[in-house]
Amino acid sequence: MLPSFSFVYRGEEFEPALDTTANVSIESFGFRDRGWRGLTLESSTEQDFVSGVPAIAASGAVSAAAWVSGSNVRTALLGERGAGQQTTYPAQGKVGAFYVALDPAGARAVSWSDEAGTHIQLIPELEVSSPPDPVSATKAAAMTVTADGGGGWWVVMLAARKLTAIDMSGTGVARRPVQLPYAAAEARPSSHLLVARSWLALADGHGGLWIGLPRAVLHTTATGQVRSVAAGGPMAIATGQDVSALAQESGRTVVLRTLGVRLGPPIRVSNAGVLMDVAFDASRDVILLLTAENAGGTVVLREISTNGHIRRSQALPECRHRQDGQVEASEGLIAVSCAGPRVESEQCGGCSSDYRTNHYILLRAGRELRSKTFSEGSEQF
User: Fold this and answer.
1) Which of 192, 175, 184 has its CA nearest to residue 276?
2) What is the pLDDT of residue 195?
3) Positions in the chain whose pLDDT score sits under 50
4) Which candidate, 242, 298, 240, places its Cα nearest to that of 271?
5) What span, in angstroms and rounded, lies between the C-alpha atoms of 365 and 312?
6) Predicted pLDDT of residue 95
7) Cβ-count burial 53-92 (b if 16+ within 10 Å, e if not)
8) Pairing with 103, which of 66, 252, 334, 343 sits 20 to 30 Å away (CA)?
9) Can you tell me whether residue 254 is helix, strand or coil?
10) Integer-rounded Cα radius of gyration of the chain
11) Are 301 and 316 in contact (CB under 8 A)?
């Protein structure tokens, strides 16, 4: 599942109604699909339409999206045949950061920031929601939302170059903010690889929260106790419920640990190369490790049991010479994405393009089921 936003401006020589086309959508494919399946969340021909790439979340078989629509935040559940009923929440002024999350029971939380601060909208499984609740009077530059395992939600927000964790109860009451001892320099795009983003937050399944930073992993509780449990080289954290995985690069060795109530014992993978990403398949108790032999070299996917046994190791030819990669896994199905290098070119006077081509692969038991490419970037002519 891939969030997408396209914007086309055709120029003044066309009819006004055809000047602009903006589409907020979700692109996806399964192992039975021959091509991408597009799901349009919103489309507009207004020249001043304000939107962008939507946020998506998944928990089991349930998925949801949230996106900006002018001065509103909208959200909907996603299905194979389309999006469910959309719900709109007016913002106060320009919408800043926003996020959507699901808990294992299907309850949803949508958080956003605007000129009045940062807010959260809690939507129970039955889709009966109350007005948004205030999280902070400060406008967040970036945020994440994570179910805390007890009916509430952790909101981690970046504001004024400081990182703060706030545990919201299931009734929308904010507990005392927890100031984290590491400041994030800037808001960056989503990635499991922590050098590629400001932070990643995961619930520990017992009310606490793991926070992965580029060079450290912290653990905090709702009472404000914060401790550092790992520090060092480049790290990646897998998403998951209650149990996840941490990967840490040390030279050409990658050290893996399970991440639950506590940090598991180290599993060392020698001569692994450059860390790209890590995932955890709870149904099989398997860690998925994605590495590159060197920058831009052969990319290898390993399936490793939590006792350290490497069950499978395979090269991914489609990912060779790719700079970035991600992996996800559930019920034995593995999804890998590899982002290509960005290409800039000038084709004629005033004509230019800036894009990259990404590969997306579905695998099971070492066998490739389906692969697709998707280009992202811009063209001007």
Assistant:
1) 192
2) 54
3) 17, 185-187, 189
4) 298
5) 9
6) 94
7) bbbbbebeebbbbbbbbbeebbbbbbeeeebeeebebebe
8) 334
9) strand
10) 21
11) yes
| Cβ-Cβ contacts under 8 Å for 366 (sequence gap 6 or more) | 312, 314
pTM, rounded to two decimals: 0.86
**SS in 3 state form for 314-346?**
EECHHHCCCCEEEEEEECCEEEEEEECCCEEEE
Q: CA torsion, points 89, 90, 92, 95, in degrees to nearest 10?
A: 60
Residue pLDDT, tens place only, 215-237: 788 888 888 888 887 777 778 88
Nearest of 362, 276, 283 to residue 321 by alpha carbon? 276
pLDDT digits (tens, 9 = 90+) for 251-266: 889 999 998 878 889 9
3-state secondary structure of 16: helix
Domain boundaries, given as residue ranges, for the chain: 251-381
What's the CA angle centered on 157, arms 156 and 159, to 5 degrees? 155
Dihedral angle over CA of 216, 221, 227, 231, nearest 10: -20
Write out pLDDT tens, residues 23-72.
Answer: 899 998 888 888 888 899 998 888 778 888 999 998 878 899 999 999 99
pLDDT for 230 equals: 73
Q: What are phi and psi of 211, to 5 degrees?
A: -125, 115
Please identify which residue in the block is written with the tokens 């000047």: 19
Residue in 240, 352, 238 with CA at minimum distance from that of residue 288: 238
